[in-house]
Amino acid sequence: MIEDKNQQRTKLSDLGEFGLIDHLTKNFKVKQKSTVKSIGDDAAVLNFENKKIVVTTDLLVEGVHFDLSYMPLKHLGYKAVIVNLSDVYAMNAKATQITVSIAVSNRFSLEALEDLYAGIETAANIYDIDVVGGDTTSSTKGLLISVTAIGEVETDDVVYRSGAKPNDLLVVTGDFGAAYMGLQILEREKEVYKVNPNNQPDLEPYSYIIERQLKPEARKDIIKLFKDLGVKPSSMIDVSDGLSSEIIHICKQSKVGCDLYEEKIPLDPQVISTCEEFNIDSTTVALNGGEDYELLFTISQDDYPKIKANPNLSVIGYVKEEKEGVHLVTRADTRIPIKAQGWKNFND
Ligand code: ADP
Ligand code: MG
């Protein structure tokens, strides 16, 4: 398992708050022309001229959203950025800036926070966004990290959850259930490690699903693809809580029903084999697993020829009238009502 390998541990109190902020943010470079003033004043200054601005935020709490015994801090920093960018892309917008706020207990060293910020910086570079501010404070226990992401979009290009129309096609990017199954593997290995710390697990057969849990990506590429293809989805949402609850969000807000075809749900072979190993149903995992950070959207059938050859996109269903309801059409051709079952943290 992944342990804190930092030999050198500098106490946060040795730097003080301002020294710490300077140290963590000194490498950040401004890349976006909309960033007028970045870190260093009382507030950042941004200039979007005549574009619409989208803003979204997420709060991640140690012990609730992540477990540092198998989540390296560098990956946590990366993932905290990705989950926010995914929400920006789900509006069909371009992500441009983030702010990062952290609360840390004295259990964390400077080197640990350097790892966290290395992940944030990597994501900022790969996704071409500026870190323009944040806040730093102490917590009595554990780590909290909150990222706010800002993006820009032409007024006519904004896509809401509410625009799906009967006869539209329901389309997804990527595949589903991998992050959830990756978490099952990591939790199993954590238990094995507790019993026998010398055990060296062979995680190679699970490399894809573990990567999907520890290092997810957001679908920036798809926003560009829509532009290139001249496609504007009628509705869109990112899949953070599981396909079923996101489909229900789209249907409720668009006042439509839909049929989702079980056989069309894209699954990676590692998800299928790991589900067999755990004796769980892969469709259930795809529908309710969560943390896929793929995009779910609807398009008019007129746009189908533009997307049909694209290997990143799968048509998984069909939008119907609201009164028809929201159903999964199984491989055995039975129709089961879809219920939201987001795996969020209130019921456990
Ligand atoms: P204030 O007292 O006005 O809240 P701070 O001293 O907290 O200002 O922050 C100084 C500058 O550093 C600001 O630009 C702020 O946005 C930025 N900043 C503070 N904490 C962080 C952080 N964890 N990550 C990135 N930028 C930060
Ligand atoms: Mg502050």
Automatic annotation (TrEMBL):
Gene Ontology annotations of biological process type: thiamine biosynthetic process; thiamine diphosphate biosynthetic process
Transferase keyword on record: yes
Residues at which substrate binds: 65, 291, 343
EC number: 2.7.4.16
Uppermost EC category: transferase
Keywords from the named record: ATP-binding, Kinase, Magnesium, Metal-binding, Nucleotide-binding, Thiamine biosynthesis, Transferase
Cross-referenced InterPro entries: PurM-like_C_sf, PurM-like_N, PurM-like_N_sf, ThiL-like
Domain (PurM-like N-terminal) ranges: 40-153
Residues at which ATP binds: 117, 134-135, 161, 240
Pfam families: AIRS (PF00586)
Residues engaged in binding Mg(2+) 4: 42, 56, 87
Residues reported to bind Mg(2+) 2: 58, 87
GO molecular function: ATP binding; magnesium ion binding; thiamine-phosphate kinase activity
Residues annotated for Mg(2+) 5 binding in this entry: 241
Domain of life of the native organism: Bacteria
Residue numbers binding Mg(2+) 1: 57-58, 135
Chain sites annotated for binding Mg(2+) 3: 42, 87, 238
Pathway(s) per entry: Cofactor biosynthesis; thiamine diphosphate biosynthesis; thiamine diphosphate from thiamine phosphate: step 1/1
Catalyzed reaction equations: thiamine phosphate + ATP = thiamine diphosphate + ADP
More about this protein: Reaction mechanism of ThiL seems to utilize a direct, inline transfer of the gamma-phosphate of ATP to TMP rather than a phosphorylated enzyme intermediate.
HAMAP family: TMP_kinase
NCBIfam families tied to this protein: thiL (TIGR01379)
Purpose: Catalyzes the ATP-dependent phosphorylation of thiamine-monophosphate (TMP) to form thiamine-pyrophosphate (TPP), the active form of vitamin B1.
Family: Belongs to the thiamine-monophosphate kinase family.
Name under which the protein is recorded: Thiamine-monophosphate kinase
Organism: Algibacter luteus
Top-level taxonomy: Bacteria, Pseudomonadati, Bacteroidota, Flavobacteriia, Flavobacteriales
